[in-house]
Amino acid sequence: MDSQLQKLVEDGLEKNRIRELYLYKVPTIRNVDDWTKVKEVGKIYFKGKHSTYNGGLIQYGNKYFFITDTVIVSLTKFRKWKFPTEIQVVPEEEWKKKVTEFQERYDKTNKKDIKHI
After folding, report:
1. Nearest to 39 by CA among 6, 85, 90
2. CB–CB of 41/66 below 8 Å?
3. Closest by CA position to 6, among listed 20, 31, 25
4. From residue 99, how far is each of 47, 104, 105 by CA, in Å?
5. Which of 11, 49, 71, 77 has its CA 20 to 30 A from that of 108?
6. 93 pLDDT exceeds 50?
7. By mean pLDDT, which of 26-30, 58-62, 83-87, 111-115 is the weakest?
């Protein structure tokens, strides 16, 4: 995951939300060298148009990864999981609607007289 996407994910997680588009780009991880170095960020359950996400978002090193519920369950013998929150996934249709509404409000409040030459 590139640093720009990493920053966008971090910004979204401050509000316990992540945009659907960004979630699709977060890599899925199945194995790490040391599971004790993994930090739980939040649980995710989201059913989108093309896929279903059931698992959690973790931080390993300075990067974020998605881990499936199957991996979480299989590792409970060796590690106790404590996801502090549930992360809401914002669908793209909802995101685009909010951006459009914001843009319309911005345009109305910042209209200036434009003289055509």
Report:
1. 85
2. no
3. 25
4. 22, 9, 10
5. 11
6. yes
7. 111-115
Please write down the HEC assignment for all residues of 1-32: CCHHHHHHHHHHHCCCEEEHHHHHHCCECCCC
Question: Is there a contact between 46 and 117 (Cβ–Cβ < 8 Å)?
Answer: no
Q: Which two tokens stand for residue 29?
A: 């991880």
Tokens for 18, please give them: 């992540």
Contacts of 55 (CB under 8 A, 6+ apart): 43, 44, 66, 67, 68, 69, 70, 71, 72
C-alpha distance from residue 88 to each of 2, 10, 79, 106 (Å): 22, 14, 25, 26
- End-to-end alpha-carbon separation of the chain, Å? 47
